[in-house]
Amino acid sequence: MPELPEVETIARELRRSVVGAAITHAHVHWPRSIAAPNPWAFARDVSGRQITAVSRRGKWIVVVLDEGKTLLVHLRMTGRLLVTNGACPDAGYVRVRFLLDDGRSICFHDVRKFGRLHLVDEPEAVLGALGPEPLASGFTLDEFRRLLRGRRGRIKPLLLNQRFVAGLGNIYTDEALWRARIHPLRKANHLSRNEITRLWAAIRDVLARAIESGGTTLDDGGFVGAGGDPGEFAPHLAVYGREGDRCPACDAEIERMVVCQRGTHVCPGCQEMR
DNA sequence: AAAGCACCCTGTACGC
DNA sequence: TGCGTACAGGGTGCTT
Predict the structure, then answer these.
(1) What is the pLDDT of residues A91-123, one digit of tens each?
(2) What residues does A63 pair with on adjacent strands?
(3) Is A151 within 7 A of strand B by CB distance?
(4) Distance in angstroms, CA of A173 to C1' of C9?
């Protein structure tokens, strides 16, 4: 489940290792992984393009190519982008493979086939609907307060909404709410000024620290970076996947509930519903 | 505006 | 051992 920190980790690794290389060929092994244009045109149009930059927007990896083309990759649940020299590991799960002019490959590896690749001229057509980047300097406390105003829904689904804020997924939403001591079912517009301040700081802090740790790799081994290495943030998770464990802050037993069809982890001691 | 659900997928965990 | 079933989850699209 790559979220903002995992996608950022991959983008940084790609930036360091493949900017300047050219894509000589693309093999599409699972056509439905290609969202646009059609798989045949995708393979044709991406071939011969040089990689000029790699960045991230929300959970999207943005690969800027020459001649005005941009490759957008969303990893969804199980997607990986692996830079390899020679054969791709677990080749049976490689849905798209890009051959580079230096002999290496970028393998799009995706067990559950939910990930999608777009080759576009106008990335904003895809990325434009995303909410603000939570780590950008423009995402101030005032801005967060303004965004919450008038939102009458519950806070967890709102944080998961990519149009509200870009990049939060199930793991970091649960962690941020725990750090801010806010129950996931609280109404967004009923949060106090102090709670909003805590939540804003918690979101930015947990994301920044997870990036420093190279992301979260759970016991299932889902996430790995472009070099195949797992992230180191899992030991720092306080509630996510820790049902039955003790809260690091108050020693209460972590509970699991379901909110908007998502497994949700809360400390009953720290996160009261009120 | 918000909430609920089906869908897309497959590995894993479970009950029998 | 082996089968069937439930479950996990990000995002989209539809309905209520």
Answers:
(1) 889 999 999 999 999 999 998 898 999 999 999
(2) A54, A71
(3) yes
(4) 14
